Amino acid sequence: MRRLWCLLAAVVAVPPPAAAQQPPASPGEGLPVVKHVLPNGMTFLFLARRGAPTISFVTHFRAGGVDEWTGISGTAHLFEHMLFKGSRTIGTNNLPAEQALFPTIDAAADSFTAEFRKGAMADSGRLAQFRERVKALEDSARSFVVSNELDRILTENGAVGLNASTSNDVTNYYFSLPANRAQLWFILESDRLRNPVLREFYSERDVVMEERRLRTETQPLGMLLEEYLEAAFRAHPYGRPVVGHASEIQAVSRNSALEYFHRFYGPNNAVVAIVGDINVDTMKAWATRYFADIPAGEPHKPVVTQEPPQRGERRISVEFDANPQLLIGYHVPSAQHPDAPALQVLGQVLTGGRTSRLFQRLVIRDRVATNVGAFQFPGSLYPRLFTFQGVPIAPHTTEEIEKAVYEEIDRIQRDPPTDVELQRVRNQAEAGSIQRLQSNFGLAFQLSNSEALWYDWRRTFRDQAALSRVTAADVQRVARTYFTPTNRTVATLVRPTKPAATGGND
Amino acid sequence: MRALSLGALLLAFVPAAGSAQDARAQMQALQIAPLRFNPPQPKKVTLSNKVVVYLLEDHTLPVISVQLVSKVGVANLPDSLWGVGWQADGLLRTGGTMRLTPDSVDKLVDFYALNISFSTDHELSTAGLSGLSRYTDQLVSLGFEMMKSPRDDSSRVRITAAQQQENWRRRNDTPGSVLGRAWSQVVVGNHPLGRSLVNPAEIAGFTSERFRWVQERLYCPQNFVMGVSGDFREREIVALLEQQFRAWPACKPGLREVPPVAYAAGPRVVLIEKDVNQTNIRMGHPGGIKLANTPDYFASQVADFLLGGSGFTSRLMSRVRSDSGFAYGVSSVWGADTKREEQFFAGAQIRAEKTVAGINLMRAVIGSMATEPVTAQDVKLAQDNEVNSFVFRFENPGQIVAQQLGYAVDGLPANWFDVYLRGIQAVTPEQVRQVSQRYLHPDKLVIVVVGKPSAFDRALSEIGPVTILPVDSIKR
User: Fold this and answer.
1) For labeling, which of A147, B88, B362, B366 is most exposed (least CB within 10 Å)?
2) Which domains does chain B have, with CATH numbers?
3) Rounded Cα–Cα distance for residues B460 and B356 (Å)
């Protein structure tokens, strides 16, 4: 027993020779994934796995927040909600009668928007009146709506994990089914992709506004992140909140949501991963049968806007009735850049685990912060932000955290990471790459996401393997290249000078 | 192979048969084969110290997971040690062992990418150890050493104290935190089951000795049930566990039974003012039902599913979100435990300008469970969902083992899931109506509201006399 621990201690001090050998490729790259592309460009990835008779379905569309145009922020996300409202058959008991009401409802909504466009000059009485009219009209159409029928069908068939999410780069939809009900996915997904009906549009727009309030406007960190991104990106749409600006959510029309759909939801922009207890040949046949006749749409074009190089540090403070916290960000390249693996390793050396440099210093040694973390966001396709997040322990301040972060950045620019630090990151990457093979859903999500972003399902696995080849010199080089004061944005949450009457703290 | 390609080709050229029909017709034509699945059963082994271990081997991936559940939790401690107990899990992980400094433990955990975590909850305590199976010896030895001989190094006790002091300082920063704590104070009072935040007086009492006193009692062999899943061999893991348990002393005295708890009933309206444009609301009362093999329990589960437990198909979601656009999130929980009757409550985050309308709507929907009876189709939806999704409760070995640990701790039979499914399938619409009528009381709700009254659509007092609870009077 004691001998074992001595050995372990030795391992911690000096990595054994085996660890220095060229690491194996990521185990995920060898998975027997079958890629099947329909003539209309729709891409399917099939992976048959042993185990319980379940199947996970994940679809990514190459359509996200960055693809919106001025004035319609939040539409990618609102449209994601609308795809749960059904189709020409699901969700209605009388489609013609229902759709006959849409022009009147839209006209009332347009009247609201026309008044709303007057900004501060808008008449609040008229706004309220138009709002009530939209609601009354939509309520009258509701007699033809079968509420949440899509969800109901899936619920009774034992589906789990029905959900979707919208990011800057892509939008995804997913659920899992018992294996004997797989065909249901083909029927329902092809139906809503072919025949979406944007019913209950304006009440859902209100729901999205509440989602914005829930995640952003009432949350200190949510608000800080939104303002931070807007400060750091002045040209690129990564600076725009995916959920949308409050004013624009209130004014998005059913037609602009449909326009977004027609531009970006062609089958050639869709990648489906189906993982679990499947027969690949049956899946291929069903893919063709249910999706092949949907005409291809415009191919997705990457955003043309590039964020110009920053010309000096940017600092903002965000007032909120809450205790302080801090974000520090540096512009770094996209996830496909050759420097991306080194940046990821750099993040792990600095904040990955209790033995990381910043955690050791800020949390353990100096007790200045409750926690410190680093992450790269708000997307993968385009240049993004390497972000440090710190939460101070009073009476310590965000300034003390900032100073310590800069000193640790200076240090890693001077002294590269040690062999032990790098081996720790490699071991963590290896364990992570195996653990993520455990669930059907996790695999389906990764395969579909990787193929949608990079047109290559193996890419994410390869990126994990690439972490093992990062050298100390690589880490030091990227730290020197990107972590410069000129390239930096700092956002601090501060309590307003006149505290609100309520919600007081110590 | 060629025939197959031809088939695929033909299908590609014949305009999809699917598109000619509508989705409803396609669904009606679906032939669904029965699902044949016998979930793997964990093997139950009893170690020489009487600890029961559920083993489920699965060599698909080189990973292993060891789960321990102890049948006692923080509510079993003397009141004076509640705060110590609530943080004893973190100190087990960070405080080092008698032999290894905290830094040495952290280095081993990080270097081998081990996942070692502890959780001291109200009525049970857990440990989870997982990692690559080639490090099984290191994982299990280190995890057990942390439980058997915690050091609770004073430097780490000070860190925990400072972090908890900061958590306390930040307790009112988000509406959800204010609501959760206010709810507990109003409904559960000062009972340990209502606490979730350590206060400054408790933090002042943090010492290494007290942490050890607590850990020795919450983590000790007689209270454990265990599970191991993944890539291991039975003989080897049993030998390893026997070795780890050797010389682990028996549980020490000093714990108590959890004191009886009385959940408050209404009608009562409590307001906590906060300057936000969305109102956090929770309304509820005692749930009246125990988790047991009784028709009432199963009917209450179906009622909750249809009222607010099932997402979009529920009445609350349908009416408050989909029809009205008042909220993004709205749901209900009809809690039940094997030990006691729990609470029923519904909650939502409602647009400030629809606060009172939203509360009235939620109350009406709760009441509708008795007055607008659920249909046979509704009940069948809940039953079909349970029956058809059962396979997802047995998707991976860790989940199957965890299920058995849960049953063992709750005193439920190993086949409880079968009993549960049969119970749900026997529920009738009339039983759902009866159970709703008997146990759901929209006129006796405690309603706790966190928001900005000047932004509300109407005066909150329209619902009933309002008690204003200043945010600083929330003691926990």
Assistant:
1) A147
2) 43-245 (3.30.830.10), 268-473 (3.30.830.10)
3) 6
d(CA A469, CA A300): 33
Q: Domains in chain A, start-ordered, CATH in brackets?
A: 34-92+145-291 (3.30.830.10), 314-494 (3.30.830.10)
Whole-model pTM: value is 0.94
pLDDT tens-digit series, residues A400-428: 999 999 999 999 999 999 999 999 999 99
CA distance A403 to B67: 41
- Of A436, A445, A437, give the one whose Cα is nearest residue A59: A445
Tell me, what's the pLDDT at A24?
A: 52
Report how far Cα B343 is from the mean position of its chain's Cα atoms. Answer: 14
Q: How far is B256 from chain A (nearest CA, A)?
A: 33
DSSP A396: S
How close A303 gets to chain B, by Cα (Å)?
31
- Note whether A432 contacts B: Cβ–Cβ < 8 A: yes
* Phi-psi domain of B145 (left: phi exceeds 0; alpha: psi -120 through 50; beta: other): alpha
pLDDT (0 to 100) of residue B12: 32
Of B60, B106, B328, the CB nearest to A354: B106
Burial of residue B128 (CB within 10 Å: 0-12, 13-18, 19+) is middle
> What is the distance in angstroms between the Cα of A468 and the nearest Cα belonging to chain B?
14
Asked whether B388 and A181 are in contact (CB, 8 A), the reply is yes
Main-chain dihedrals φ then ψ at residue A205, nearest 5 degrees? -60, -40
- Which residues in chain A are closer than 8 Å to B22, comparing Cβ atoms? 88-89, 191
- Residue range A417-443: mean pLDDT, rounded: 93
Please give the structure tokens belonging to residue A195: 């025949």
With a cut of 50, which residues of chain B have pLDDT below it? 1-20
Report which residue type is found at A390.
G
- Choose the mutation target among B93, B278, B322 for the interface with A, i.e. most A CBs under 10 Å: B322
Helix axis angle for B295-304 and B429-439, nearest 10°, is 90
Q: What is the phi-psi region of residue A355: left when phi exceeds 0, alpha when psi lies from -120 to 50, beta otherwise?
A: alpha
pLDDT for A97 beyond 90: yes
Would you state the pLDDT for residue A6?
34
- Find all residues with CB under 8 Å of B341, minimum gap 6, and list them: B286, B287, B288, B289, B290
Alpha helix ranges (H) inside B66-132: 82-94, 102-111
Look at residue A8 in the predicted model and tell me its pLDDT.
Answer: 35
Contacts of B138 in chain A (CB under 8 A): 4, 8
